[in-house]
Amino acid sequence: MRLPRVLLIDDEVAFSRTVAEFLRRKGYEADIAPSGEEGLKAMREKTYDVIILDLRMPGLSGMEVLKEIDPSRKLAPEVIILTGFGTVDSGLEGLNYGAFDFLAKPVKVGVLIEKIMAAYERKLMKEA
Amino acid sequence: MSARESSQPVRRGEQTDPLSHYSRLFFKFLLFSMVCATIPLAVILFHLHDSYYEYSGQKMKTAMQRRIEANKDIVDDYFRERLNELHVISRLYSFEYLKRQENLKRIFDTFNSSAINYEDLGVINQAGFHESYVGPYNLWANDYSVTFWFKQLMAEGAVVTDVFLGYRMIPHIIMAIVNEENGTRWILRATINSYLLNAKLRKLIIGEAGEAVLLNDDGFYQAAPRSEAKVMTKSGHDMSTFAKNSGVEIVSGVEPGETTRKILAYSWLANPKWVLVMQQDYDEFFADRAYANQATWTFFVVSALSIFLVVAVSVAYIVTAIKRRDSELKALNAQLVQTGKLAAVGQLAAGVAHEINNPLAVIQSEVDLMREFGRLPSPGSALDADRFFHEIDTQIDRCSRITRKLLSFSRQIKSEPQPVDMSEKLKDVVGLFEKWALTGGVVITAEADPDLPKVHGDPFDISQVLVNLISNAIDAHEGMKGGAIRLKAAADKKEGMLQVTISDTGCGISREDLPYIFDPFFTTKPVGKGTGLGLSISYSIVENLGGKIFVRSEPGKGTTFTLLFPVTHEETTEKVTSYETSQSSPDR
User: Fold this and answer.
1) Coil/strand/helix, residue B234
2) Nearest neighbour of A108 by CB, restricted to B356, B364, B380
3) What's the rounded Cα separation, in Å, for the pair B545 and B542?
């Protein structure tokens, strides 16, 4: 099984850069996007398996990006919401729009990788 | 004088004002109720009083009219009887018979026996001299053919004269008739002295100040029983008053020097051409009116006093109730403000949590990266430890900046009113929200005029207002691509106030919601998101500071809140500055 391709969409670039470096060192293919618009653009250029999505960003908000991705589509990537403004409400909303899971910052990268793998599994099952 | 002392008058003024407000309310209520209660009473009493006056006036006129006419008949009858008696004598006895003195004397005595009616009685021949005479005067030598009444008598056959002095030089009237016997004319003449007439009229006098007089048609007194000296003098009555056959008139100032009102009842006699005038003092006659007047007034005053007492007691009760309710409301408001402070802290918490969680996430990921790969010989490029430490430092810095701001905010929760520097306050509060807003694409800018006057108030209260308005402004951009919030502080020299405007480019407030936004518990946010207290608390804070808060909003375009704060006196801020300087000077 190949490792999933991951896109981190977060305006907190210091964070996504570090996580991406971690993932790359683990053998994942990982890209970063500093905004929702950039993230959607990246997804048009390349196919990703899992998206790590921040909710609160200037410009397009995470929730809007999530709606755009629509993970319920057959070939759509799985989305893990990761936000510093973690409330049950926004988590539930995200799940309603088809997000795979909801994580609150700060998060251990190990935990994040577990979630990425779980999401990737679901994606593979969805495709099969 | 310290800063606190110089700021006292403002507060004292605020506190004494409500007291006078309630007493003003009391007097307003009282006045209104008294007017409402006494006006109908006064109208009814006036109407009753008026009707009674009219009724008694009518009754008086009728009574006086009846009386004057009855009395006139008496006086008329008196003169008619006397004339009849002369006619009877002249028909019963011949001229020859009456010329004899003893005969005339017997007749005179007979007619004067029951009551003294005549002063004297005489028989006068055609030439105008006495043939016979019974009476106290010596009139034998007098030629009556030259007198004023003789010609009239000859022409008309009978005469009753006005009072005059005549040969005897004593006021009297003459009654005379002409007879003709075998071609010879002779006169039977009787006189009635003035005192007899007065005695007759005295019986008609009514009341203490009442008077009955007889006047001739020129207005000269013919009889005046109360003051006989007036006889033959001209009366003060305006004779045009007695224009009708008889009547009742009310005149004022009949007597010179007196302005009292008089009731004049008059009736013209048949013969002589005199008028009987009964004069009655108006006030004496209407003594019962005065009594009714007094009773009415007493009733009115007593009623008004009892109404006043009842109204005063109930109004005092109402005003006390209002006062109690107001103070309860005030206490409730104070509670609400306290609740609002907590709400403001809660509002901050969201931003602060985001602000701290983000750097923590960076630190966490950096640490995870270092833990995982730092100890091993790196498969790819080597980990840069310097970059790692620098990143951790940066993020810790971010965290401590935000906690410092939060601390400075929470320290003010229990603060005292003092001069507040608005430009610094804006900087502080904006600092708390800036980053949080930016993650939502909203740029907050704050600008303040240089040399702004200071605002007197509780620094936390002022922060709270700004926190409420800014966090609302951020929320107003929810679901939008981004926007801007502009804060501006400027001195409003015209009003002597400091003006702070907070404009946003958010969703705006709908026309229907706008009137209610300052009401407690009014919120357009989803359940669990807004308490509906922020604006109502901001409103009471600004009002309590003696300021004003306005809002202008255009749905879809944005909202602008304008706050006006009263400024402290220039003097105060200067003193504070110098005070602080001297405190911190090194030689202390």
Assistant:
1) strand
2) B364
3) 5
Q: Minimal Cα distance from B378: which residue of A? A: A25
Antiparallel, parallel or unpaired: β B172-181 and B221-223: unpaired
Q: What does the pLDDT look like over A43-92, one tens digit per residue?
A: 999 999 999 999 888 878 888 999 999 888 888 999 999 988 767 777 88
Residues with Cβ within 8 Å of residue B184, at least 6 apart in sequence: B95, B126
CATH number at residue B217: 3.30.450.20
Query: Alpha-carbon distance B72 to B66, whole Å?
Result: 10
State the amino acid at position B120 in one-letter form: D
If you search the block for the tokens 């229907």, which residue do you land on?
A: B512
Is-contact B533 B541, C-beta < 8 A? no
In a domain, B242, yes or no: yes
Please give the structure tokens belonging to residue B331.
């206490």
Q: In angstroms, what separates the C-alpha of B479 from chain A's closest C-alpha? A: 8
CATH class of A5-127: alpha beta
Q: Final residue of a domain: which of B235, B262, B287?
A: B287
- The whole domain housing B221 covers 198-287
C-beta atoms of B361 and A85 within 8 A: no
pLDDT at A57: 83
Q: Which run of H or of E encompasses B354?
A: helix B287-373
SS3 B167: coil
Q: Which alpha helices (H) appear in B170-265, and where do they start and end?
A: 194-202
> Is B553 a member of any domain?
yes
Tell me the pLDDT of chain B averaged across its residues.
83
Checking if the pLDDT of B4 tops 50, the result is: no
CB atoms within 10 A of CB B513: 14
Structural domain tally of chain B?
A: 2
Which chain B residues in 431-470 lie under 8 Å from chain A, judged by CB atoms? Answer: 438-441
Please state, in angstroms and rounded to a whole number, the distance separating the CA atoms of residues B297 and B545.
53
Residues 399-438 of B with CB under 8 A from A: 438
Separation between Cα atoms, residue B111 and residue B93, nearest integer Å: 14
List of residues 6+ apart from B44 with CB closer than 8 A: none
> CA nearest A55: which of A12, A6, A109, A2?
A12
The region of weakest confidence among B174-188, B280-294, B506-520, B561-575 is B561-575
Interface contact A14, partner B, CB < 8 A: yes
Provide ipTM, 2 decimals: 0.87
Q: How far is CA B435 from the centre of its chain?
A: 64
* Inter-residue contact B4 to B456 (CB < 8 Å): no
- The lowest-confidence range among A46-60, B455-469, B564-578 is B564-578
The residue out of B287, B314, B345 marking a domain boundary is B287
pLDDT in tens, B184-197: 899 999 999 888 88
Q: What is the DSSP string of B230-259?
A: GTTSBPS--GGGG-SSEEEEEEE--STT--
| Cβ neighbours for B155, distance < 8 A, ≥ 6 positions apart | none
Q: Residue A64: which of A89, A94, A34 has the closest Cα? A: A94
**Cα atoms in the Cβ-side hemisphere of radius 13 Å centred on B485:** 31
One domain for residues B421 and B559: yes
